[in-house]
Amino acid sequence: MNLKQELQDLNDKLEKFRRKLAAAEQRGDATIILQFKKEITTVSKRISSVKGQQTRELKKEGTDVKTLPFKRTLTKAEQADMGKLKKSVKGLVVVHPMTALGREMGIKDVTGFAPQAF
């Protein structure tokens, strides 16, 4: 299971536990309240660990892309015909500033990274 799906599942579980905790508090059921508080803390810890893992993977991918020897901002014409550009440049990695990788790298424009000049 990928990290994004696991994070979504954990958030769903957390929401379910919170709803059940609220219902148990409304009933005044002390044992169930204690159980769901414990479940909420364990799921919250797991969520933070998965988010940390996602961040580490994103940073690793960002450093891998930054190590490519050539980079430049792509023109609007190149962006419009991305298929042609990717076919002509071997090993091209395009990073958009609105993606998670682009935000992590801090780029402002659509940038292409490649092993050789293009």
Q: Can you list the strand order of the major beta sheet?
A: 1-3-2
Mind telling me the C-alpha Rg? Answer: 22 Å
Secondary structure tally, helices: 5
Strand content: 5-15%
Mean pLDDT: 93
Pattern of helices and strands: HHEHHEHE
- Tell me the count of domains: 2
Helical residues, percent: 55-70%
What is the molecular shape?
elongated
Q: Give a short account of the largest sheet.
A: 3 strands, antiparallel
Organism: Shewanella denitrificans (strain OS217 / ATCC BAA-1090 / DSM 15013)
Protein name: YibL family ribosome-associated protein
InterPro entries: DUF2810
Write the layout of secondary structure elements.
Elements: H1 3-27, H2 30-66, E1 70-73, H3 76-80, H4 82-88, E2 93-95, H5 100-105, E3 111-114
Antiparallel strand pairs: 1-3, 2-3
Helix pairs in contact: 1-2
Pfam family, one: DUF2810
InterPro entries: DUF2810
Protein name: YibL family ribosome-associated protein
Report on the architecture of this protein.
The chain is mainly α and 118 residues long. The protein has two domains: 1-63; 68-118, Uncharacterised protein PF10928, DUF2810 (Ribosomal Protein S8, Chain: A, domain 1, 2-Layer Sandwich), CATH 3.30.1370. Helices cover 68% and strands 9% of the residues. The chain contains five helices and three strands; from the N terminus they run ααβααβαβ. The protein has helices at 3-27, 30-66, 76-80, 82-88, 100-105; strands spanning 70-73, 93-95, 111-114. It has a three-stranded antiparallel β-sheet with strand order 1-3-2, with no helix packed on it. Helix 1 (3-27) packs antiparallel against helix 2 (30-66). The longest helix has 37 residues, at 30-66. The mean pLDDT is 93.
